[in-house]
Amino acid sequence: xxxxxxxxxxxxxxxxxxxxxxxxxxxxxxxxxxxxxxxxxxxxxxxxxxxxxxxxxxxxxxxxxxxxxxxxxxxxxxxxxxxxxxxxxxx
Length: 91
What we know:
single chain
């Protein structure tokens, strides 16, 4: 696996994706312990996971377009929350 520094975002942009990242992870953890027995809560979780996933992907798409990040087939971008640096990760 290789990581190549390809850009940087503002602290505000970083905070936006970090919030979505933490929310998505929290919802995924909740999904592991929540059963479909509580149908109402389960449906809310599924809906929230979907919406958060869409917002997460939209952020990456918008930033990639704004900053013209390099991309490759099979690669993905990664952010260092401490430095706001964006890396292209490839296998």
